[in-house]
Amino acid sequence: MNVVIIGASGIGKHHAKWFHLEGCHVTAFSGTSDASCRKTGQTLTDLFGFQGRTYTDYRRMLDFEKPDIVCICSPNESHLEQTRYALEVNSHVYCEKPVAWPNLATYTLSSHPPSESPEVTHPILRQTLDKTRSVVALADQRNRLFGMNAQYVAGREAYQTIYEKHNGPMDDIESFYFLLESKGISGNYSSYEGIWIDMAPHALSQIIALMPPGNLDMSHMDCRVKEDNTVARFRYGSGSIEAKVSKNAESDVKRKFGVNGFLVDYYGQPDDQGVYCAFLRHGDDIVKTVDFMQLSVRRYIKSVRSGGTTPFVDGHAAVKNLEMSMIILEHAHADNRLTLKE
Ligand SMILES: NC(=O)c1ccc[n+]([C@@H]2O[C@H](COP(=O)([O-])OP(=O)(O)OC[C@H]3O[C@@H](n4cnc5c(N)ncnc54)[C@H](OP(=O)(O)O)[C@@H]3O)[C@@H](O)[C@H]2O)c1
């Protein structure tokens, strides 16, 4: 299968590598300038021997390459337009999280009263959510597969193995805890609600996958946005949830999650053979598994090929993820005012 990447200098280079290692042919990528494309092209060649074409206009790339899969790794505000175009040239789409977000410079949340019911009410957020729904519906109409990358959800099987070893069957989920720290977050998303917008999709994708068909309970909603972190506590489905996303440039980042108080640390590193893997640790017990991004890409390719399975986060889960992220943010209390423009 032929794959192209829109935006390969950041996380996109890892997608390019994983698609290549999973047996696809990465024929091209796009960037914003000739200089950045040259630099990224060299990086991809060093990573996995990339020999494809480069473009500074993604539309030209899609018109010419007509790929089986378009992998979208550009800034959030361009995801929808690029997805729509990719569907028009009949490609399947694998898009980075969040599935979409409006340009942060175009609206403010601070004076907007949230709803008591589980719905997005801010007009600009609502508009983005509606557009996302229609793009996902377009994928369905065209029989193209939309998948979103939020790789933590791929850790479910490894987590369940270690959980069940210590606790028996993971039948009832009464609580879910998620902590994700990151050293660097791209541009506009590195403070206040930007941190939530950027990282919450990882927590939400796990929650959605763990408790289908859950819903947000609006009577238990508490979200605190600070400059370097956001903590949200709420009820979803059968569980009480605590999700903390945080910027931590100073010390080793912590990544932890688990259900019913059984928490594991998550980290990625090369194993004894030098293969980059994911590890879950609970006390002295460590489970090694395939890197979560690699697993997510593998599952997406399998879903495109066979149709017998679905991506870890399909279009409908991506819309739900976005909607929950927006609703929770609309209910946030800010330390300082939310930073979006008046
Ligand atoms: N799943 C994860 O763990 C994870 C981690 C990081 C980021 N992400 C997500 O991945 C996406 C990209 O983030 P990033 O950190 O990789 O960002 P980045 O480092 O800023 O890279 C963005 C890429 O998109 C290209 N680009 C910029 N504006 C564009 C436009 N208008 N149209 C087409 N391409 C454009 C850039 O081209 P140049 O090469 O010319 O600069 C660059 O290659 C975001 O949605 C982010 O939330 C996910």
Automatic annotation (TrEMBL):
For whether the record's keyword set contains ATP-binding, the answer is no
The alphabetical list of record keywords is: Oxidoreductase
Q: Where is the Gfo/Idh/MocA-like oxidoreductase N-terminal domain?
A: 1-101
According to its UniProt record, what is one Pfam family this protein matches?
A: GFO_IDH_MocA
Transmembrane spans: none
What Gene Ontology terms describe what this protein does at the molecular function level? nucleotide binding; oxidoreductase activity
Q: Does the keyword Oxidoreductase apply?
A: yes
Its name, as the record gives it, is Gfo/Idh/MocA-like oxidoreductase N-terminal domain-containing protein
Source organism per entry reads marine metagenome
